[in-house]
Design brief:
The protein is 19% helix and 32% strand. It is of the alpha+beta class. It folds into three domains: 69 residues, no CATH class; 79 residues; 137 residues, no CATH class. The protein starts with a helix and ends in an 11-residue tail after the last strand.
C-alpha cells in the first residue's frame, strides 16, 4: 500500500526535475538594454570650416610720452582734461581766463599767428589739420581765402573771439595725433597755467600694433579680421599692423583710449578670425599617432596612415588639416595599431 502511494510522488518529483533542467537549458539571454556596449572601432570623418575665432591681445609701440602745452598764460577756468579721456583735433580742451583753447593736430607744430597770404610749412600743416576736420581746402598753397573761411568757421564753432579767420597761436594747442589719450593732467581748474609748461601728458604717436603670442599659444597662419568695438580691421599674416590710416583710426577709438590709460604694457583686447577659413576635421586626441608636433598622423580604416597638421584643440577634440585626401573613416581607441607615421 505504502509502495503504491510513493510511486506517484517519485514520478512527480522526476517530472519536476526534468522541467527545471529544460528551463535552465533554454533560459532567455539578457535584454539589449542590459548588454555591455562594445566600444566603436572607427569614426566617420567630415570636413568643416574653421575660422579660429578667439580673443587676442595687441601690444602698442608708441613714441615716448608727449606733453600738451598751451600757448598763453592765465587762470584755468574750465578744463576737458581727465585721465583716460581723449583729446581730438578740433576739441576745446581748456579755457584760460574764460577764453577757449582749441586742440589742432597737424604734421608739424604751429609756431606763429597766421593770416591771409602767409606762406610756409606751417601753413601747409594748417591746411592738413583743416582737411582732417572735414574742411574743403587744398593740400598745398598759401593762407588763402578758403583757409581763412575755414578758420573762421572753426573759431565760430569753438566760441573763439573774434571769429575773424586769423589764426592766433594763443587760441590753439598742438596735438601729436588726430586723437590722443590723456594719461595725466598737470593743471586743474582754479590753478594758474604758465605759458610753455605741461597742461596734460599723453602717449606719443602709435607706430605699430603687434599680436601677442605666447609659447603655448598656437596661432594658425593667415590674414585675420580684427574687431575692436564696432570697427573691423585686417591684420596681415606677419601679426603686425603698420598701416598709418588703420593705426590712426584705432588710436581714435574709445577702446584704445581707455586701454592707453591703463598700466604700461596692458595689451589691447580684440576678437579675431581668419579671413580665409580652413577646411578642418575634428578627431579625438586618442586617434592621433606620433608625438612630434610636426609629424602626426591618423590610421585609416584599411590600416594606412595619413599625415595631419593640428591647428587647434577644443572641447576634447583636435582640429586637424590633412596633407592629402581625407579618409572616409579612421580607427580610434584600441583599434589603432600604428605606432609611428610612415
Amino acid at each position: 500500500m505504502i509502495r503504491r502511494l510513493l510511486l506517484p510522488v517519485a514520478t512527480a518529483l522526476a517530472g519536476l526535475a526534468a522541467g527545471v533542467l529544460v528551463v535552465s537549458t533554454f533560459a532567455p539571454s539578457a535584454p539589449d538594454s542590459l548588454q555591455v556596449p562594445q566600444a566603436p572601432r572607427t569614426l566617420g570623418l567630415q570636413e568643416t570650416e574653421f575660422r579660429d575665432e578667439r580673443s587676442m591681445g595687441l601690444t602698442a609701440d608708441v613714441d615716448r610720452t608727449a606733453a600738451i602745452a598751451l600757448n598763453t598764460s592765465g587762470m584755468v577756468t574750465a578744463s576737458r582734461c581727465a585721465p583716460g579721456a581723449g583729446f581730438a583735433s578740433g576739441d576745446v580742451i581748456a579755457h584760460l581766463d574764460a577764453a577757449p583753447v582749441v586742440a589742432l593736430s597737424s604734421s608739424t607744430p604751429l609756431f606763429r599767428d597766421l593770416a591771409l597770404d602767409d606762406e610756409g610749412t606751417d601753413v601747409t600743416a594748417l591746411r592738413g589739420a583743416l582737411r582732417g576736420l572735414g574742411f574743403a581746402v587744398d593740400a598745398e598753397g598759401s593762407y588763402s581765402t578758403a583757409v581763412r573761411d575755414a578758420v573762421k568757421e572753426l573759431q565760430r564753432r569753438a566760441g573763439v573771439a573774434p571769429a575773424d579767420g586769423v589764426l592766433r597761436l594763443s587760441s590753439i594747442a598742438w596735438l601729436p595725433g588726430p586723437t590722443v589719450a590723456v594719461t595725466s593732467c598737470e593743471v586743474i581748474v582754479g590753478e594758474r597755467y604758465e605759458l610753455g609748461s605741461p597742461y596734460a601728458q599723453v602717449p606719443g604717436t602709435l607706430r605699430s600694433l603687434t599680436l601677442v603670442t605666447g609659447e603655448t599659444t598656437t596661432v594658425v597662419p593667415g590674414d585675420r579680421i580684427l574687431r575692436l568695438g564696432a570697427r573691423e580691421f585686417t591684420m596681415p599674416d606677419s601679426g603686425v599692423i603698420g598701416d598709418r590710416a588703420v593705426l590712426d583710426t584705432i588710436a581714435a577709438s574709445p577702446e584704445y583710449l581707455a586701454n592707453a590709460a591703463k598700466p604700461k604694457d596692458s595689451p589691447l583686447s580684440v576678437t579675431a578670425r581668419l579671413v580665409t577659413p580652413l577646411r578642418v576635421v575634428a578627431v579625438p586626441p586618442g586617434a592621433l599617432v606620433g608625438t612630434a608636433a610636426d609629424a602626426r598622423c591618423v590610421q585609416a580604416e584599411n590600416g594606412a596612415t595619413a599625415a595631419v597638421r593640428i591647428v587647434a584643440s577644443r572641447l576634447g577634440s583636435s582640429f586637424v588639416v590633412f596633407d592629402g585626401d581625407v579618409p572616409k573613416r579612421i580607427r580610434i581607441g584600441a583599434a589603432v595599431t600604428a605606432r609611428a607615421c610612415g
